Amino acid sequence: MNPVHPTAREDTVGLWFCPNDGLDQPTSALLAPHWLDEHERETAGRFLFERDRRQYLVAHCLVRRVLSLETGIPEAEAVLWRSSRGRPFLQAPPGGLPDGARDLDFNLSHAHGFNVMAVARDRRVGVDIERLDRGGERGFDWVVESFAPQERAYLAGLTAGGRRDRATLRLWTLKEAYAKARGLGLGLPFDSFSFELDEEQGVVGFRPPEGDDADRWCFVELNPRPQVLVSLAVERSRDGSAPGRIEMHDGFPWGRAVPRDIPLPAPHRALAPLVGAGA
Question: Which residues form the 4'-phosphopantetheinyl transferase N-terminal domain (predicted)?
Fold first, then answer.
């Protein structure tokens, strides 16, 4: 089995962004019985609302299509296993994985009509997507309670409204992406690590939790659509190198398309540990 559309180089990180309307409802319903495994089909069947079921089907059809393009494994034949925290991995068949699937890591996120998947080799990757227009009257202040003290102080200094909501959601998606790359999800306390943001976009400082190294990670922020934020956490490879290229595909990947190159992030500095903190 040969990959149909692998990332250009092993040091390339691929992002696959797909709105729900990139795969229409009749097509996703047609593909689901053939592409998804029993666990995925059962999960889809438990949703009470059709919009949630549709979101799930598009997201998981996207995963299997991208894995097929990246590894050459047919969509229906990819065997996924999930960690105790629900993170999916590609399981090796009895004959072993094809070359294109070795050392592959991937991560999925979806939010209210949008999906994004990240794929990398020889490094861990995590991704999160959120919508700024879903805050409602409460905004996003309710999530701030879980943040580190420096982050709460930074947000408290911003005027309530759009600017603070955006900064809050930037921090939230960065934290989600990092925790997912670590394979811990919400099991990693969000006040045990912190980010310092550039005013407009990008991470200028990172304080990791105890046991991790700030220089181990790269962080990227994207706005693939107005009011849609995506954050990406990428581990340096085993030899310590950062990704050489980040490319983004837009839409459901039926065939080959030219991706858009994403500028590589500038290095961030390591923030000093909190005085008296364990991290």
Answer: 31-118
DSSP per-residue codes, 182-196:
TT-GGGS-TTSSEEE
Q: Is residue 2 part of a domain?
A: no
> What's the CA gap between 37 and 78, in Å, rounded?
9
Q: Residue 94's domain spans which residues?
A: 12-270
**Integer Cα distance of 213 and 207 in angstroms:** 8
Q: How many other C-beta atoms can be found within 10 angstroms of the C-beta atom of residue 268?
A: 19
- pLDDT less than 70: residues of the chain: 1-9, 100, 135-139, 274-279
Evaluate whether residue 276 is within a structural domain: no
The enclosing domain of 112 has a CATH number of 3.90.470.20
Domain assignment present for 5: no
Closest of 244, 213, 230 to residue 121, by C-alpha: 244
Tell me the pLDDT tens digit for each residue of 168-212. Answer: 999 999 999 999 999 987 789 999 999 999 999 999 999 999 999
